[in-house]
Structure formats: C-alpha cells, structure tokens
Amino acid sequence: MMAPRYRDVKASMIPVATPSEGVKVKVICGQVGSVEGPVRHIVIDPEYLDVTLAPDALFSHAVQDEHNVFAYVAEGLGKFDETEQHTINAESIVLFGKGDEVKVEAGNTGVRFLLVSGRPLREPVAWYGPIVMNTEQELRIALQEYEKGTFIKSEIA
Questions:
Q1: pLDDT digits (tens, 9 = 90+) for 58-96
Q2: What is the pLDDT of residues 105-118, one digit of tens each?
Q3: CA pair distance 52, 61, nearest whole angstrom
Q4: Residue 53 to residue 59: CA distance in whole angstroms
Q5: CATH fold of 11-118, please?
Q6: Which of 114, 103, 106 is CA-nearest to residue 55?
Q7: Is the pTM of this model over 0.85?
Q8: Quick check: 105 and 88 in contact, CB under 8 A?
Q9: Cβ contacts of residue 72 below 8 Å, gap of 6+?
Q10: Where in the chain is the domain with CATH 2.60.120.10?
Q11: Spatial CA neighbour of 23 closest among 38, 33, 11, 36
C-alpha cells in the first residue's frame, strides 16, 4: 500500500490536444499524440481524457488492451463502437471490452465524454460509503479514524 497523495490541478494546467478536425481533448492524465497531462506517476497507469467532438466528427484513440476502459457521455450523442447501430446519449456510461482502440463518431449535435482507463488492481475490495480499503479490518480502522478526525493525512505531493 502507498501513502495517499493530493494533487491540486487547476483548469489552466490542463493541456488541450487537437488530434484531428473537430476533435478537442483535454488531457488530464495520460497522453494524446505529443500532449501529456499534468497528473503522472499513478500506480495503475490511468488515462483520463475530456473529449469534445464537433457534429459528425470522428475520434479514435489507442488504449492498452489489458486496461479497463469506460466512457461517460456528458453531453450530446455518439456511436461508441463502429459495429453498433445505435447512438449513446448524455448521462450514459459505455463500458468497453477487450481491445486496443476506442472509436467514437459524434452525432449531428456533437458529443462530449470522459474517456477513462487504467490497469486493474486485482485486489480485494472492502467498501463502506466513500471509504474503500482492501480488508474489513482496514475498513474498520479507517472508519474509526474518520470518526476521530484523523483519517485525512496532510502529506501533499
């Protein structure tokens, strides 16, 4: 287990990639072309992209095939798999299966979505409310620390 870290990332620190016509990608974590996000050195090697596509624009992005990948559609409509014949609308999540590339085609109003991926931890999970630990014993300790006001440690990375 590693010590928790906090990173204060302001909007002005997030670079924008424009890999093709009608495509704008805010790179929070990971890389699009030569643009790398400000959040780095995370154990699960995540990628966190805020993607906006103009109407009918196309976006394709390589992903690591061993990573779990999902997209949360924030606005608009889009096709999130070239074999699918239906569009996915806002406030929906698309969970991708195995593969090495994500392809999205915007609908006639455009689409904005968060594309998130990362290496699975494959660890046990004990969960209660907002607290996630590996074991029930760690969870009990965390809840006791929370009640005492000592759960949040003040180390800033």
A1: 999 999 989 999 999 999 999 997 666 778 999 999 999
A2: 999 999 999 999 99
A3: 13
A4: 8
A5: Jelly Rolls (2.60.120)
A6: 106
A7: no
A8: no
A9: 92, 93, 94, 113, 114, 116
A10: 11-118
A11: 33
